[in-house]
Amino acid sequence: MTVLKTSMRNVLAHKGRMALSAVAVLLSVAFVCGTLVFTDTATTTFDKLFAATASDVTVSTEDASDTGETTSGTGRPPVMPASVVEKVRGVDGVKSAEGTVFSTSVTVVDADKDSLSPTSGAPTIVGNWNANDARTMKISSGRAPRGPDQIMVDADTADKHGLGLGDEIGVITAVGTHRAKISGIADFTVTNPGAAMFYLDTETAQRALVGETGVFTNVNVTAAPGVADARLKEDVAAGLGGAYKVQTAAEVADANSADLKGFLDVMKYALLGFAGIAFLVGVFLIINTFSMLVAQRTREIGLMRAIGSSRKQVNRSVLVEALLLGLFGSVLGVGAGVGLAIGLMELMGSMGMNLSTDDLTVTWTTPVAGLVLGVVVTVVAAYLPARRAGKVSPMAALRDAGAPADARAGAVRAVLGLLLTGAGGFLLYLSGAAEKAGEGALWLGGGVVLSLLGFVVVGPLLAGGVVRVLGALVLRVFGPVGRMAERNALRNPRRTGATGAALMIGLALVACLSVVGSSMVASATDQLDKSVGTDFIVQSDSGQLLTPQAVEAAKSAEGLERVTEYRVLDASLTLPDGRTAKDETINAADPTYAQDLRVETVAGNLADAYRPDSMSVFEGFADKYGLEVGSKVEVAFADGRSAELTVRAITSDEVVVDKGAMYVSIATAAKYVPADRMPLDALLFASARDGQEEAAYAALKTALDDYPQYTVRDQTDYKEALQDQIGQLLNVVYGLLALAIVVAVLGVVNTLALSVVERTREIGLMRAIGLSRRQLRRMIRLESVVIALFGALLGLGLGIGWGATAQQLLALEGLTVLEVPWPTILTVFACSALVGLFAALVPAFRAGRMNVLNAIATE
């Protein structure tokens, strides 16, 4: 109890000095709890939606997925005859059965030809208005569609795009474009996470989505009172003779939840990973805080030891302080995490993913995880300072000599740091020299961890040399004030090393990712220049296939010399030795694709692969199965019949574009795959006549003006799009790493603030002999700048090394260009100096306001 009281008094006595450590714990815990609350809320929202929209039993075609998805490579959903509905109605236990038809392979546009599809990745769904939808949607204005010229839209989509009754919109499908006017607007009675819903009457939906009437994609079955879903499923399946997929509401909901879980898990673990980095950075802040507090309370600790306190009691007292700090910061962090989750929901809402606070989910595991994590990290970080406090000799403390320097501990640290750094460097070398990407990735991960730990441990040793160099380059121009700032930074290398290490971690990751991202863009650009011989590429950024109407429109553009179609088919291959390669993909293209993509071959000629009953394979596949030019391969097309094809070319694996592809001609594929099952084009490649590139580019864009879901790019556009995509991803990562950098800045602020308190008497003496307030503040600011630059220099150097090693692994996948983005690296380094200046504002201001006489009198 005495230890607890002493710890409480110490916490209250030094609450200002511990505030920033508490903020670091708060931020890290808030990030963890906010992530958990956000993902749990998203799961709850979708679970409610899936449960509400699923009928008691659903009948779908065998080709449909477990989630009820009915899209296919043909752009038309697989369907069943209307007679199935009558069969289901005749099954015992069925209260009602209703046929539905819907598709997600659609694009809906307004009168100005602007897409009405969500930008968040949520689906656009067009279907017939039915009783099952009426359970989850309420018509708020107008009425349900009647006739081919009417369509109903959900209220969220109408509000977002300013749609009203009577507005004309178009539904673009593989069948064609159907135009209708809005007859009604319906509100969701459950939370809509962001899907865009459009409803036609049944016959119109069949014609617009499938191209024929009298067919359905699904049958929604309602059970009679007292009939369990599982029993009804068995009876319906028996009544249909097992020819269709039959699922209960729970099975459909579970399948949808499992499909979503992968996406949410990726998001959750990515965010938790960044929270872990913030926690790691916070460890240095806490270690520094308690180390300096222990140093400043040396006399107090000596008195405690002199009146009978044991080493364990002193140690325990410091750990209890850490426990109280961790509890306080974690409790506030849990509350802040809920607020952060709500903020994330608002942010996702602005991007089109709507999550309601009505579904806000805070499970008991979230606050427990936050509290346990925050407290454990804080106590573990405080262990070394606590142990050091317990070793303070009573007589040494009472003489105000402080704890004697532990030369042996310094030597051990140096040896351990060098061993870790050397081991990390060796693993990075092995990674760069690896011949397989999978093996190299393991070495890379180990090398990153060990080299980071090595730099953290050896940081105090590096501080002396690096700070002197930085001082000579940056501080000496400020004269005596600069030299004093340099000496202050060198006074306690361990403290400088720990403070710089906190900033080093975040900037090392920034530099590594910048190198990897820039190398990917440079490599892909280089490959495009070498490999792509076409002028224009037409594709959908959302992954939609090209409708036949869009393909014909593109071919009609003036100024084009050729247009190459490109399709992807699923197939299983039986090799000459009897082995089978299942679930492979084969790319079917026009023969002109050999001109559009200059693929290097190790055997044969790629143009020959487009001859009748011919194909190409890639080098790795040929080596694995012992294939050579002239080998016969039996190809069983998933949507057609089997064909015996002759290998005419073996393509090199040293490529990025279409790496690992196998080719046949569209004519060969069409010979074995029926027209109604042939996949739509995934891409189009177009080349202009000589001298007509600009005119053809404009004509192609104009030709596809009615199809906003497709983008026309020339090679410059394609490179810019690739750079933008990687840039956007990196910006998101940098934004998440900003949390770790903010915590690191708090560490610099806290170190300087505690250092000012520690040097109160010294500051008073310097002021007494003529140092002005302005000079004092400049000295503290320069000290902060040099510590920040020290951390930045180590972090950026380490990150460049990691990035260069990672690029060597990417080279195994064809990304052979290493590019270090020096403008980004130099900008980050310069911004680190600004970070140092910012971190020193408050400590420098407080030091400048210090009363000279009171400071001199301080003991």
UniProtKB/TrEMBL annotation:
InterPro entries in alphabetical order: ABC3_permease_C, MacB_PCD, Macrolide_Exporter_MacB
Biased composition (Polar residues): 60-74
Transmembrane segments: 269-295, 318-344, 364-386, 407-430, 442-475, 496-521, 732-757, 782-804, 824-845
GO molecular function, one term: transmembrane transporter activity
MacB-like periplasmic core domain location: 19-237, 499-700
Record key words, sorted: Cell membrane, Membrane, Transmembrane, Transmembrane helix
Chief localisation class: membrane
Membrane topology, record value: Multi-pass membrane protein
Intracellular or extracellular location(s): Cell membrane
Region described as Disordered: 60-80
Annotated family: Belongs to the ABC-4 integral membrane protein family.
PANTHER family per the UniProt record, alphabetical: ABC TRANSPORTER PERMEASE YTRF (PTHR30572:SF4), MEMBRANE COMPONENT OF TRANSPORTER-RELATED (PTHR30572)
Name assigned to this protein: Membrane protein
